[in-house]
Specification:
This is Membrane protein. This protein is mainly α. The protein has 18 helices and six strands. The protein is elongated, with a radius of gyration of 78 Å.
């Protein structure tokens, strides 16, 4: 019996009767239903996000922009979100939003806080802080919804950042235009300043020259004023001295006149009084002599009394020793002797005092005698010269009268001289005061003209530097003016927009899936192919027992057992392909090649499941399920296969489903076909050949019947 006849016999067996036919039809529809319904349900979920309820809380208090206009970015964002239709947004309070997310009334919530606008405007006030969008999610509601909401808030943030950045850049560029205009005005003003500074420099030079000449003349005038002050001072000093001397002379002349008058009067009186002076002086000389002789005798008597008094005092002093010795001889103690001597000293004290007075009176009597002698001698001389004195006094009285008359005339002349000298002194003093004031004023004027000259020189130097600096300022402003941006309004707006959103993306897609479902189609079609091949062997026998019992070739038996499942698998994937491409609208770029690859994939997968069932029976059927799970997680159907854990890398590289998924992507999206022809097809063929070889080995083993084969422990 050939493999084809064995396959036809198996197909007849499983289609014998109405229910078997329905079962076969049901098995044929499993890949179609699995892939079709899953891809239908997930064909374009993003287009139906407007059915997802979301809470929107707007607490933004708003603010004012740079021009003073009211602005509320939070309200603008809320309007944009609700108008976009991206989600079914509901404007609610913060408490209601929080409660709704917890209770799954809302999938997530977006909160725009009270200071959102103020935070966005903070950079203009140099107190920068970020505006915060609060996204509240609950993965218990839906995990992917959080991911989609994150994408939404990212887009909102980028949109707000673009708008705010554009506005800030526009203000920045507007500021540059304003700076350009002001710099132009400053350059014009600097040019005028340079011209005025040059004119001022010329005037300052002339002022400095004139101030120097003025200072020289003022110094000459100061020298003359100083000379005048010195002469006036000398004149005032001389006039003062003259006035003082004249006053003194006037006073002396007055006293001289009065004195000469008194002298004349006195001399006249003296002449009358001394007319009898010669006779009287003689009498006086005789009497003085007699007095002198009597005083001499009295002095001699006093000397004798003084001598006796001194001798008596000496004797009393000498008696002290004698008395002391006598007292000691009579037995008196020294203390008693001293007391006696003290009493004796007290008793003789009046004698000592009297001796002192006697000595004093004796000396006075000696001096009196000597003086009386000199008076007597003088009286003798006076008596001898009295005639001449009387004649001289008469002559003097006559001359004093003449002197009195001349002194009176001198007093009148000197008084006039004193009055004139006083007036001269007053005028000279006033002249000196005025000259001093003139000198002080001239000195102040000299200082002022010196400062004026120095200031004029500094002014000349400063105006020169000012002119030079103003010229440099004008040149610098003029040369730097071109470096300050001054874009036209249209260019400024375009530049601001570019600064606010400097980076744009341009998608370059070598191949592209149109929808989310189209992106998942290669994975789920490959997975559905495996499931379809797996369920076929719920009806199809992996190996023909009759052929084994008849001793047919193991390869023929293996092919005879696989061909029915392989043909049914081709029918399965053809129906699945028709549903996906025609009903769901997921049209491959290479439709016939895609269908051919699905046929090859189905034949390979059915061969693998056939070999497992042929070799291991129920255990092999279970292993087929395990291999499906391993390929489900390692094929890279949703995320890139590189994102799977490292231990699953070998599974991805060995198992055929990952290659089938990659090949379907290239064929459906229009990718490079070299990988399909060079890698995926050979891998599938190798797996097909390996599975057929394993099924042949199973057929070879089945020729020997065992108790387990006759009565298996587990039948599925």
């Amino acid at each position: 019996m050939s493999a084809i006849r064995m396959a036809i016999s198996e197909l007849r067996r499983i289609t014998a009767g109405r229910l078997p036919v329905l079962a076969v039809l049901a098995l044929l529809m499993i890949p179609m239903l699995y892939a079709g319904f899953y891809l239908y349900a997930n064909g374009d979920p993003y287009s139906r996000l407007d059915q997802v309820p979301a809470a929107l809380v707007v607490d933004d208090a708003g603010g004012t922009d740079a021009e003073g206009k009211a602005q509320n970015v939070g309200q603008d964002v809320a309007t944009e979100l609700t108008d976009s239709g991206s989600f079914d947004f509901h404007r609610v309070s913060a408490a209601e939003a929080d409660r709704g997310v917890r209770d799954n009334v809302y999938t997530f919530a977006v909160t725009i806080p009270r200071d959102f606008t103020a935070a966005l405007q903070s950079s203009g006030e140099f107190t920068p802080r970020q505006g915060i969008l609060v996204l509240t999610t609950n993965d218990a509601n839906n995990y992917l919804a959080r991911t989609i909401a994150d994408t939404l808030t990212t887009r909102v943030r980028e949109s707000v950042a673009k708008e705010v950045g554009t506005q800030a850049a526009d203000r920045f560029l507007t500021g540059f235009s304003t700076i350009h205009t002001r710099t132009q005005e400053a350059a014009d003003g600097a040019g005028k300043l340079a011209d005025g500074a040059a004119t001022a420099h010329d005037g300052a030079a002339r002022l400095a020259s004139g101030a120097g000449e003025l200072a020289t003349g003022q110094r000459t005038l100061l020298d003359g004023a100083q000379q005048l002050a010195d002469g006036a001072g000398e004149l005032a000093t001389g006039a003062g001295t003259l006035a003082t001397g004249a006053g003194t002379a006037a006073s002396g002349a007055d006293r001289l006149s009065a004195g000469t008058g008194e002298l004349a009067t006195g001399l006249g009186t003296l002449r009358q009084a001394t007319a009898d002076l010669p006779a009287q002086s003689r009498q006086l000389a005789d009497g003085a002599r007699q007095v002198a002789d009597g005083n001499a005798q009295l002095a001699a008597a006093g000397d004798r009394v003084a001598q006796e008094s001194a001798r008596l005092a000496d004797q009393l002093d000498a008696a002290d020793g004698t008395i002391a010795a006598n007292l000691r001889e009579r037995g008196f103690t020294d203390e008693q002797v001293q007391q006696a001597l003290a009493a004796l000293s007290t008793a003789k004290q009046p004698l000592v005092d009297g001796n002192a007075r006697v000595q004093q009176v004796s000396g006075q009597l000696d001096r009196l005698g000597s003086g009386a002698g000199r008076v007597a001698d003088g009286a003798e001389q006076l008596a001898a010269s009295a005639p001449q004195l009387s004649s001289g006094i008469a002559s003097a009285a006559d001359g004093a009268g003449t002197l009195r008359d001349g002194a009176t005339e001198l007093s009148g002349g000197v008084r006039k001289l004193s009055d004139g000298a006083t007036q001269l002194s007053t005028g000279a003093t006033a002249l000196r005061t005025g000259a001093d004031r003139l000198v002080a004023g001239e000195r102040t004027a000299v200082d002022g003209t010196d400062r004026l000259a120095d200031g004029a020189r500094r002014l000349d130097s400063g105006t020169g530097e000012l002119a030079t600096g103003a010229t440099r300022l004008h040149d610098g402003l003029a040369s730097g003016l071109d470096d300050i941006p001054n874009p036209a309004p249209g260019v400024r707006e375009a530049t601001a927009a570019n600064i606010g959103d400097p980076v744009a993306t341009r998608d370059v897609a070598y191949s592209q899936a149109d929808t989310y479902g189209a992106g998942l189609a290669p994975f789920f079609m490959a997975l559905a192919t495996w499931i379809g091949g797996y369920v076929l062997f719920l009806l199809v026998q992996p190996l023909s027992r009759r052929a084994i019992a008849a001793g047919q070739s193991p390869l023929r038996i293996a092919l005879g057992g696989w061909i029915p499942a392989g043909l049914l698998g081709v029918v399965q994937v053809t129906g699945m392909y028709a549903v996906v491409s025609l009903l769901l609208g997921i049209t491959p770029v290479h439709p016939f090649a895609t269908l051919a690859l699905l046929w090859l994939t189905s034949m390979t997968f059915t061969a693998i499941v056939h070999a497992l069932n042929a070799l291991l029976g129920a255990v092999g059927q279970f292993l087929g399920l395990v291999l499906m799970v391993l390929q489900l997680v390692s094929a890279g159907g949703t995320f890139p296969w590189q994102t799977i854990p490292g231990p699953l890398y070998p599974v991805h590289h060995v198992m055929p489903m990952g290659y089938a998924v990659d090949a379907l992507r290239h064929l459906m999206y229009g990718g490079e076909l070299a990988g399909v022809v060079g890698t995926a097809v050979p891998v599938l063929l190798v797996w097909f050949a390996g599975a057929l070889a394993l099924a042949t080995f199973a057929a070879y083993r089945k020729r020997v019947w065992t108790a387990t084969a006759v009565k298996p422990e587990l039948v599925l």
